[in-house]
Design goal:
Helix content: 25-40%
Strand content: 5-15%
Order of helices and strands: EEHH
Largest sheet: 2 strands, antiparallel
Number of domains: 1
C-alpha cells in the first residue's frame, strides 16, 4: 500500500521563517508537492538565519515565502470559505 500526503498552502507558497508571536520557533513547511525543488536552498537559508541570528529579509529568499500574521489570517479566511 502506498499513501501520499501532500499539504498545500492557500497561496501556494511555502511558509518560511520565524513563527509570528512565538519566540525562537521557526517554520519551513507547505511546499505544495512541486516546491520540493526549493527545499535545499530554503534549508540552507533557514540554517544561516538560525545560526547567525539574521532576519528573513537578509536571507535572499523571496519575500512571498515569509510567514507573516497577515498570511496566516488570510489562510484562515480562505479556509472558512471552502
Amino acid at each position: 500500500m502506498f499513501v501520499l500526503v501532500m499539504g498545500q498552502t492557500f497561496d501556494e507558497m511555502p511558509h518560511v521563517g520565524t513563527i509570528p508571536g512565538k519566540q525562537n520557533q521557526f517554520i519551513m513547511a507547505g511546499f505544495n508537492g512541486g516546491g520540493m525543488a526549493l527545499i535545499f536552498l530554503i534549508g540552507k537559508a533557514m540554517a544561516i538565519m538560525i545560526q547567525e541570528n539574521i532576519p528573513f529579509e537578509e536571507t535572499g529568499l523571496p519575500r512571498q515565502f515569509k510567514t507573516t500574521t497577515e498570511r496566516l489570517k488570510s489562510a484562515r479566511r480562505d479556509a472558512s470559505n471552502v
